[in-house]
Amino acid sequence: MKTIKYTPFLLALGLVFGVGACTEDKLDEIDTNPNTPTDSPVQLLLPQVEVDAAFGISGTDLAWISSVFVEHTTGVHAQFENLDKRAVGSFTNNTTSNNWNDIYAGELVDLNLIIQKGSDGGSEAGAWRYVGIAKVLKAYTLGITTDLFGRIPYSEALQGDALLKPVYDKQQDIYTVIDDLLTDAIADLDKTSSKSPTNADLFYGGDAAKWKKVAYSLKARYYNHLSKRDPAGSADKALAAAAQGFASPADNFTFTKYTTAAIGQNPWYQEQNDRGHFAVSATFYSILQNGTPTVTADDDPRIPFLVDPVGRNASNPRVAAPNGTAIADQGGTTYSRISTNIVDATSAQPLMTYAELKFIEAEAQLRKGNATAAYDAYVAGVNADLNAKGGSTYTNSTSTNANVIAFRAKVFMGASNLTLRDIITQKYVAAFPYMSIESYNDYRRTGFPVLNNPKGPAPRRFPYPQSEIDTNGDNVPNVPLASGVWWDDGTED
Question: What pLDDT sits at residue 26?
């Protein structure tokens, strides 16, 4: 966090010349406006980093770009239309500068400050609840960053003027850091804390047990990302962590504090309401209609909850925008938009959910050859998502309605027929639209869902910002956007 020291110049001069006996320390004390502090306590820092984790890190450009690349949405205006159509110069080193600066000059700096202040020897030593939460959020932020960019600065980063050109650490090493942070966070959350965040914690009101479940659930997510590098080991570790993660949707890691005030609105709503860059993708909608793009079945009961009719007029049809070839439609008069059921000014924004955790468990069990356990976890994930999105009557329905029967046959196919594609497809539906980054990660790991943009495949990583190339060019990896990150294709650059 940037702090500002306010110095009334004329008043300072009067004190210097009029009180000759003042010591230098006393002058420093006088030269401080009590209404503009130069330091912030952890109680003020925590809500700031939590808002930024939801809004800035996982709620704006990084997620929006990922949603276009993984075809949750289709870009139908301005830069996102260009990204969708793979226009030359649409995805450059300038695209990610704001997010990178937010992560490195804002979020990680403030998280480190909370950890430093609340740990032994800090100015608020013993504030272990704050420290544990900050370590979870730091792991989450590093995970987002390395998953999108690959190698990132860490071991020499965040030192200010003392080290302006940090090296870029291998993603494999960053993943070790993430796991260590989450392990330490769990231990810190178990300690007796000198203060509890309560109202300062915008996610769980300072509930240490809830935050421990987030830490274990994130461990499962990041272990599972290593499915290509260590199939069996990653499955075992993911399952062990998942067993101590979210127990139900009531534990979801979800930001619920957006407001109707212009500066407090859900960022997806701000984008959809003010700029209109996105429509619902034809790829995503075809999966809802057909279960899989290649097999015909009847409609998914989540469609009315997720996709609005064109123009949000109930008398109009729902029309998805074809990826790569959609016409410009900023006004939303040609294609369907994401429903206001899930994108409105105060809509909750999930960062990780129980449904995702169950799909991780299903994938890990399938990788181990445990078909029944995989299917049980898969059904739990689908049901959690259905219950949240207007399809609860389909979960255990004995209806003779042809649509219900067709949907259940396609989605609840039985343990012997469950495939990785089924798991990732339903996880992809459950992630729409807020967790598109995770769907982008899944696509790069598994090849699912099957994407359809005729303009070609999406990049497999994000470009480093121009500011880094200009100031730290010797250390910035020179890597083509078509090359995967370490957990994707095994390369580092």
Answer: 42
